[in-house]
Amino acid sequence: MRALFALATGTFLLSALVPAQAEKRIFIIASDSGGYGVDRCLANSSKCGRAIANSYCKAREFTTVVSYRKVDRDDITGAIPSDKGNCLRGVCEDLVAIECSR
């Protein structure tokens, strides 16, 4: 009986010492600012973009932003067309990756 209790206690203590893996997700969004300059803050990873990215994460029920940066269309394999013919008037919007964590 003592051995079973010791085994259960040891298992519990070991599981408590192992850090839990936080759930992370990367959102790819167009950096269309509508004239507000939001795109420059996010794409350049400026301090002003942190509040915007954090609000974006919280709106999607994540706790905090891990990172935010500009991404090239070629870096996103098959998810978003890189052919300019698919873009509005032949001009493609810049894309921003926002990584959120729970």
Helix-strand blueprint:
Blueprint: H1 2-17, E1 24-30, H2 38-43, H3 47-59, E2 64-71, E3 95-101
Antiparallel strand pairs: 1-3, 2-3
Strand numbers in spatial order across the main sheet = 1-3-2
Helical residues, percent:
25-40%
Beta fraction: 15-25%
What's the number of structural domains? 1
Number of strands: 3
Principal-axis shape equals elongated
Low-confidence stretches: none
Summarize the model shown.
The chain is of the alpha+beta class. It has three helices and three strands.
Write up what this structure looks like:
Helices cover 34% and strands 22% of the residues. The protein is of the alpha+beta class. The protein has one domain (22-101). The protein has a three-stranded antiparallel β-sheet.
Q: What tags apply to this protein structure?
A:
34% helix; 3 strands; alpha+beta; three-stranded antiparallel beta sheet; 102 residues; 3 helices; 22% strand
